[in-house]
Write a structure and sequence with these properties.
Layout lengths: L6 E6 L2 H12 L2 E3 L7 E4 L6 E6 L13 E4 L3 H10 L8 E3 L2 E7 L5 E5 L12
Parallel strand pairs: 1-4, 5-8
Antiparallel strand pairs: 2-3, 3-4, 6-7, 7-8
Length: 126
């Protein structure tokens, strides 16, 4: 049986702020079903969906061992464009043939933009 990772649940304090954040900066589209307490954010490229669930009162947000990484061919341009819309990424970092930068969403979940998926590999299998 083939399995694939299709959804990630994010526990958030303000669902509407997080919906607006991912719609504005990453083009996700909110999908709501009547009676469902979860809002699903659909990736327009067909990738993994984000399921937003209201965090419990005692649940701490932004303290996870998970970081959402978005593939971006040109990290510097994307970061500059995002800043114009209110999303500030930290310093650009270079690592093993790619560039990445970090930020946080409105619930303090760590996110990153990375060109790793677009790097050229010198390793060939033959």
């Amino acid at each position: 049986m083939a399995l694939s990772l299709n959804r990630i649940v994010l526990y958030v304090k303000d669902i509407e702020a997080v919906v607006a954040f991912y719609e504005r900066h990453f083009d996700f589209k909110a999908h709501r079903e009547e009676g469902d307490r979860i809002v699903e954010l659909i990736d327009p490229s067909g990738g993994t969906s984000l399921m937003l669930h209201l965090a419990a009162k005692g649940q701490k947000t932004g303290q996870s061992t998970v970081k959402l990484v978005f593939d971006v061919a040109d990290v510097e341009t994307f970061a500059a464009s995002s800043a114009k819309h209110g999303l500030e990424f930290g310093a650009l970092h270079s690592a093993d043939g790619y560039v990445f930068a970090n930020a946080r969403d409105p619930s303090d979940n760590p996110i990153s933009i990375s060109s790793r998926a677009f790097r050229k590999s010198d390793n060939t299998v033959g």
